[in-house]
Amino acid sequence: MHNIETRLAQIGSQEEPVTGAVSFPVYQATAFRHPKLGQSTGFDYARTKSPTRTVLEEAIAELEAGDAGFACSSGMAALQVIFALFSQGDHLIVSLDLYGGTYRLLEKVMSRFGITASYVDTNDLDALETTVRTNTKAVLIETPTNPLMMVTDIELVASWAKKKGLLTIVDNTLLTPFLQRPIELGADIVIHSATKYLGGHNDVLAGLIVSKGQELSQQLAFLHNSIGAVLGPQDSWLLMRGMKTLALRMERHEYNATRIARHLQQHPMIAEVFYPALENHPQFAIQNKQSKGNTGIFSFKMKDARTIEPILRHIKLIAFAESLGGVESLMTYPAVQTHADIPEEIRRAVGVDDRLLRFSVGIEHVDDLIADLMQAFEAAAAELNGGASR
Ligand SMILES: *Cc1c(COP(=O)(O)O)cnc(C)c1O
């Protein structure tokens, strides 16, 4: 098998035998003609299977070392398909610090169908032991977590879960298969918000699921088709076009993020930087053991909450916006944006408070990004000092 950089660049490039098109075509069709009764080209109706989507699904399954891939209309749609594996009365163990939308889907939607969740530090085996019940069916891990960048040892949790008969589900959005492959570490299901790094250009909304094992893959194929939140052919094509440059982008994202995180660590206005690439990160060793590198997002806590509003007003190159993983740098204020649906007591208990900013570092020149941040910090400091003396 070729190296992952090669496989990424070649997605769909050798799949079109008729014309030899190097870019796989967008098959904008929902119905497929049957040669005769009892015969099919393999395609019948586009919700079940669609040619452009199939190339994407096979590519992600192979990249994540799984058996089957499923492309969904968003990351949330992918999570909904996965949660539909469970039934009334089932219980899930979920990472304590996690994407706000996942929490909302569990607490405001799945809970109405009798599926409950407990939120724990998934790196704490004792906590897992005390949380597991007879009706627990799965552990859902985000690693690193968004926004606090806590890292879970996937191999450790997956082997614990296997002994208990639980599925291990990993949200691999932040690292992508270029940097981390949870199935190789024992996970059963990987989920992606492909809207983020896989797409990479802040222009396509998509979700991907990869599963290991025949039975589980068949169950997911049934649910994917039954629920119907599938990805359309245009968006499947856009996502594959983005994925071709994933390796290059992730390398630059990591380089830029590491440079900026080190710079901010020294800054007098900053209380703390949360990034697993930094040696003082509590799970630095685990991160290095299980992944090839680091994501391009990190978060940091200002010493003074009053600096947040002026910093967000003064950044010019870096956009104040709610997403991550694209080529353009974005700054997010989790307490009011991505994590607003998580109750304040829970947010504060894990540390997502009003002094925390999340930075999705793009692929611009790192010096330009540092200069933009520093002018925003200086302007914020000047406003606060001006306010104090007035
Ligand atoms: C964005 C995100 C999701 C949700 O994905 P959408 O594509 O926005 O529906 C799920 N998990 C993580 C970690 C995310 O960042």
UniProtKB/TrEMBL annotation:
Pfam families: Cys_Met_Meta_PP
UniProt cofactor(s): pyridoxal 5'-phosphate
GO function terms (MF aspect): cystathionine gamma-synthase activity
Keywords attached to this entry: Pyridoxal phosphate, Transferase
CDD domains named among the record's database cross-references: CGS_like
Gene3D superfamilies: Aspartate Aminotransferase, domain 1 (3.90.1150.10), Type I PLP-dependent aspartate aminotransferase-like (Major domain) (3.40.640.10)
EC code: 2.5.1.48
Family indicated by similarity: Belongs to the trans-sulfuration enzymes family.
Protein name: Cystathionine gamma-synthase
Lineage, highest ranks first: Bacteria, Bacillati, Bacillota, Bacilli, Bacillales
